[in-house]
C-alpha cells in the first residue's frame, strides 16, 4: 500500500513537472531574449544530416523536417537586399528568432555585408543559385552546375568563415528536375522545398500574406514556411505573423547542418513524414515493399519423390520420369503437310460450299447425265432431271453446312463469280 502510494505520488509529480515545463517554455524562450520579455524566441535547434534525408518539403517531396506538432521553421529566399533584408533581420532579432536564408550569388556579390550580418546574428545561410533562373528544370547539366557553383562561391566569399555556409539549396521557383536534384545530392547538398508558402512574391497585400501564412500553417499543424526577405509586403506582414504564432501556441525551430563536432539529432524515419501514422490511425494504403538484395540467387533443385516420402516403384503415375522437354522427339506426330487441306479449284465441293453456286452445281450434274439422255429414252431424261433436282437439294444442304464452318474452309469467291456469270 505504501509502495503504491509512492508510485502514485511520483507519477503525479512527473506529470506536474512536464506540464510546468510545457507551459513555462514560452517564458523560458523569452528569458533568452534580453529586453524583449514578450518575444516568441527559438524553442530548439534541429541538427540534420543532408546525406540521410536529401529532399525535404511536402510541397514536392514525401519527407519534411522531423518537427513536432505546432513547430515552425521560417525560411527566406532571394536576399540579401539591404533595404528590406535589414528590416527582416531586425524583426527576427527583436523576437530572438533564428531562421534559414537561401541567398542568391549575385545578391551576395553585390551586398556581402548582408551575408555577414546573417552569420553574425546566428542564422543558417544556404544558397539559391547564382542568378535565380526559373528554367533549371530545362537546363543542360553544365548550366545547372554553373548556377549552383556560382551561388556557393559568391555567398561563401562574403563570409569571414566560409565553413559557415550550410549545404542547403532551394531550387529557384521550386522548378525541380531529377537531374538537378541528383547533382546536388551527389555533392552532399540537401534540397529544400517547403511545406507551405505565403505567396509574398505575388502582387498581394501584406494582410493577404499574413492570412495565407496562418491559414496554411493551421491546415498542416507544423512545417516549413516559405517567405522572401526582399519584399516590402513581407516586412509589413512578418510582425503580425510572429504575433499570431505566439498567440496560437506555435514554436520556432532553428535548423543547422550536422558536423563532426555536432552530430545529427536522433530521429526515426517515420518522424520525417508530415503526419506519421499512429496506432490509432489506420494506414490508408499498404506500405511499399522494399527491394530486397539476395545474397544467393542459385536456383533450387526440383524436389524428387524421396522428398515426398513416396516410393517411385509404387507411384509411377504421380510424377513422370521425363518432362515434355526431355521426351523422345521421334514419338511425336509429324506436322501435317499443306496438301492435306488442299481442295482443287472448280470441283463440285468448292461449288457446293457457297449458296451462289447451287445453279452451277445443278447444271454440272445435268451435263454429266446428258450423254446418257442422248441415247434415246425420254424416261432416262426425266430420271436425270429428278436426279439433278436431288443434287440441287443436296447442294442447298451442303451450303448451310459450309456456312457453319466458314472459318475453316476458304471461300472461293473468284471461281464462284465466274460460274455465276456463265449461268
UniProtKB/TrEMBL annotation:
Keywords: Hydrolase, Metal-binding, Signal. InterPro entries: Glyco_hydro/deAcase_b/a-brl, NODB_dom, Polysacc_deacetylase_ArnD. It comes from the Bacteria. Residues 70-253 form the NodB homology domain. Residues 367-423 are annotated as: Disordered. The keyword Metal-binding applies. Residues 1-30 form the signal peptide. PROSITE patterns: NODB. Residues 392-408 have a biased composition (Low complexity). Is involved in generating a small heat-stable compound (Nod), an acylated oligomer of N-acetylglucosamine, that stimulates mitosis in various plant protoplasts. PANTHER family: CHITIN DEACETYLASE 1-RELATED, GLYCOSYL TRANSFERASE-RELATED. Belongs to the polysaccharide deacetylase family. This is Chitooligosaccharide deacetylase.
Amino acid at each position: 500500500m505504501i509502495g503504491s502510494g509512492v508510485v502514485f505520488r511520483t507519477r503525479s509529480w512527473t506529470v506536474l513537472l512536464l506540464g510546468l515545463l510545457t507551459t513555462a517554455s514560452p517564458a523560458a524562450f523569452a528569458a533568452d531574449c534580453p529586453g524583449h520579455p514578450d518575444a516568441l524566441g527559438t524553442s530548439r535547434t534541429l541538427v540534420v544530416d543532408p546525406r540521410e534525408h536529401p529532399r525535404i518539403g511536402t510541397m514536392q517531396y514525401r519527407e519534411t523536417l522531423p518537427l513536432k506538432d505546432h513547430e515552425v521553421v521560417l525560411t527566406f529566399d532571394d536576399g540579401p537586399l539591404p533595404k528590406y533584408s535589414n528590416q527582416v533581420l531586425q524583426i527576427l532579432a527583436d523576437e530572438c528568432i533564428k531562421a534559414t536564408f537561401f541567398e542568391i550569388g549575385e545578391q551576395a556579390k553585390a551586398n556581402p555585408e548582408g551575408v555577414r550580418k546573417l552569420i553574425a546574428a546566428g542564422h543558417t545561410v544556404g544558397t539559391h543559385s547564382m542568378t535565380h533562373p526559373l528554367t533549371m528544370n530545362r537546363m543542360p547539366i553544365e548550366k545547372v552546375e554553373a548556377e549552383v557553383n556560382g551561388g556557393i562561391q559568391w555567398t561563401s566569399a562574403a563570409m569571414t568563415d566560409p565553413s559557415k555556409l550550410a549545404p542547403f539549396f532551394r531550387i529557384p521557383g521550386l522548378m525541380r528536375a531529377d537531374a538537378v536534384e541528383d547533382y546536388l545530392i551527389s555533392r552532399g547538398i540537401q534540397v529544400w522545398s517547403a511545406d507551405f508558402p505565403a505567396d509574398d512574391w505575388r502582387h498581394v497585400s501584406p494582410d493577404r500574406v499574413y492570412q495565407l501564412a496562418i491559414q496554411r500553417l493551421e491546415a498542416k499543424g507544423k512545417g516549413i514556411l516559405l517567405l522572401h526577405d526582399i519584399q516590402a509586403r513581407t516586412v509589413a506582414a512578418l510582425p503580425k505573423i510572429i504575433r499570431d504564432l505566439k498567440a496560437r501556441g506555435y514554436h520556432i525551430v532553428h535548423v543547422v547542418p550536422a558536423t563532426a563536432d555536432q552530430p545529427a539529432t536522433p530521429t526515426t524515419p517515420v518522424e520525417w513524414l508530415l503526419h506519421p501514422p499512429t496506432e490509432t490511425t489506420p494506414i490508408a494504403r499498404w506500405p511499399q515493399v522494399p527491394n530486397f538484395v539476395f545474397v544467393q540467387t542459385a536456383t533450387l533443385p526440383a524436389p524428387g519423390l524421396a522428398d515426398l516420402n513416396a516410393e517411385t516403384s509404387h507411384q509411377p503415375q504421380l510424377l513422370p520420369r521425363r518432362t515434355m522437354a526431355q521426351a523422345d522427339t521421334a514419338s511425336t506426330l509429324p506436322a501435317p503437310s499443306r496438301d492435306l487441306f488442299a481442295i482443287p479449284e472448280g470441283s463440285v465441293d468448292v461449288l457446293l460450299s457457297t449458296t451462289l453456286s447451287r445453279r452451277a452445281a445443278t447444271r454440272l450434274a445435268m451435263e454429266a447425265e446428258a450423254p446418257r439422255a442422248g441415247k434415246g429414252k425420254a424416261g432416262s431424261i426425266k430420271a436425270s432431271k429428278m436426279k439433278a433436282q436431288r443434287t440441287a437439294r443436296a447442294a442447298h444442304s451442303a451450303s448451310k453446312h459450309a456456312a457453319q464452318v466458314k472459318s475453316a474452309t476458304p471461300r472461293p469467291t473468284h471461281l464462284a463469280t465466274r460460274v455465276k456469270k456463265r449461268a
